[in-house]
Amino acid sequence: MSIDSPDFTIDLRKLRLLREIDHRGTVAAAAAALHLTPSAVSQQVAGLSRELGVALLEKQGRGVRLTGPARVLLGHASAIAAQLERARADLAAFEDGSVGEVRVATLPSAVAALLGPAMAQLRAEKPGLQVLSRDKGPTGAVRALDDGEVDIAITVDHPGCPRPDDLRYTRVDLITDILDVVVHRDHPLAGAAQVDLTQLAHDEWISGDPDDACSVITDSVCSAAGFLPDVRHWTIEYDALGALVAAGMGVGLVPRLAQPLRFTELRTIPVAGTSPVRQVCAFTRAGGTAGAPTQVVLKKLKEVAAVRHDSTLGTWA
After folding, report:
1. pTM, whole model, 2 decimals?
2. What is the predicted pLDDT for the residue at 7?
3. Is position 252 within any domain?
4. Residue range 206-230: average pLDDT?
5. What whole-number distance in Å separates Cα of residue 271 and Cα of residue 254?
6. For the residues of the chain, what is the DSSP string, one character each?
7. What's the number of domains the chain is made of?
């Protein structure tokens, strides 16, 4: 192999021999420092010289000295050794979650409430850890996890959500997110401290996509109250739902992670009795794929969720 070969490579152990010879002045002294025989050192240096096609040593009195090409090579050897030490440090940091890249697919409503604060804290605490996020719906987040596009999927319990006993995943419950009624400020119930859903049985409703978790919850709690909601508008964005309520188009249910909505015409009121809720959770692929950086992000998400005052804390799965 020559230096012109596309397969050009250098045995780093042989570079270490050159460094020791340069430092000690003789092959024998270098061999003693490395616990090798002088013959073994000479043979390895000669082999490296043949591989590179250049002379590496020349006699100097009773000892040897490095040739010009050898000193060029030794300069690169020092840089390579330093880079290897940095690689060693980065690998150690990865093992404790201090460096790495973690990709997260998340619900838009979880970004401001959970992921954003978690990312801000991690940037200050572990600047070498990079967290990348992308918005996905409940089903899309899990699909991105299955496809290997992300390391964590933040989603909610819904018909397409993995079952708790699905061995393909590890689940972390983050928050039991309470849903409140949102009405126009001119609605007859706008000033109420609580609302019984039966009082909204004759209102027009705004809901999510029929397969969306909140749409399923809306249908479920209204059915439990004895009526089917008269849904006139469907939207996947809570800001859009708020805009429609602000325009007088109906009433709806909004999770607290998505509050406050930005429209001044709205009034948000708790549901009387047992509040409707959605379970916000995070999934990783089961097995050894959830390394230390991923675990650090999950732990931080849990910490952020624990200090929110408006929702019930989940538990580790």
Report:
1. 0.67
2. 61
3. yes
4. 86
5. 11
6. --TTSTT----HHHHHHHHHHHHHSSHHHHHHHTT--HHHHHHHHHHHHHHHTS--EEEETTEEEE-HHHHHHHHHHHHHHHHHHHHHHHHHHHHTTSSEEEEEEE-HHHIIIIIHHHHHHHHHH-TTEEEEEEE--HHHHHHHHHTTS-SEEEEE--TTSPPTT-TTEEEEEEEEEEEEEEEETTSTTTT-SSB-GGGGTTSEEEE--TTSHHHHHHHHHHHHTT---EEEEE-S-HHHHHHHHHTTS-BEEEEGGGPSPS-TTEEEEPBSSSPPEEEEEEEEESSTTS-HHHHHHHHHHHHHHHT-SSSEE--B-
7. 3
Answer yes or no: is 60 within a domain: yes
Give tens-digit pLDDT for 190-213.
Answer: 999 999 999 999 999 999 877 677
Q: Are residues 27 and 154 in the same domain?
A: no
Task: Let me know whether 133 and 261 are in one domain.
Answer: no
Q: What one-letter code names the amino acid at 242?
A: G
Per-residue pLDDT of 252-287, as tens digits, reads: 999 998 888 889 999 999 999 888 998 999 999 886
Residues 149, 202 within the same domain? no
For residue range 161-191, list pLDDT tens digits in order: 888 788 889 899 999 999 999 999 999 999 9
Residue closest to 152 by CA, chosen among 112, 119, 177: 119
Radius of gyration of the chain (CA): 32
For residue 221, give its domain range: 176-277
Same domain membership, residue 192 and residue 120 = no
Q: Which residues contact 121 (CB under 8 A, 6 or more apart)?
A: 300, 303, 304
Q: What is the pLDDT of residue 54?
A: 83
